[in-house]
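Duplicate of #3305? Posting structure anyway:
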C-alpha cells in the first residue's frame, strides 16, 4: 500500500469517527504529498527535455 493510499484510508477512518481534526491533518498530509509528487514529476520532465546537445552547450558555457 502506498503512502497516499494509507493516508486516504486514515482519512476515511477519521471521517467515520467524526474526528474533524484528524480529517484536517490527513487532508493536509495528502496535499503535501501530492505537491511533492508534482514537483518530482516536473523535475523529471525537465531533465528528460534536456538533450545531449543541451547538456553539452551548458557544459561548454561553464554553467555546469
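Output from current build:
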Amino acid at each position: 500500500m502506498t503512502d497516499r493510499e494509507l493516508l486516504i484510508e486514515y482519512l476515511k477512518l477519521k471521517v467515520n469517527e467524526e474526528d474533524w481534526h484528524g480529517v484536517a491533518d490527513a487532508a493536509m498530509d495528502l496535499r503535501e504529498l501530492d505537491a511533492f509528487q508534482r514537483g518530482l514529476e516536473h523535475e523529471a520532465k525537465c531533465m528528460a527535455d534536456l538533450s545531449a546537445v543541451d547538456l553539452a552547450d551548458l557544459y561548454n558555457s561553464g554553467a555546469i
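Confirmed duplicate; merging threads. Residues 3-61 form one domain. The helical segments are 3-16, 20-49, 52-61.
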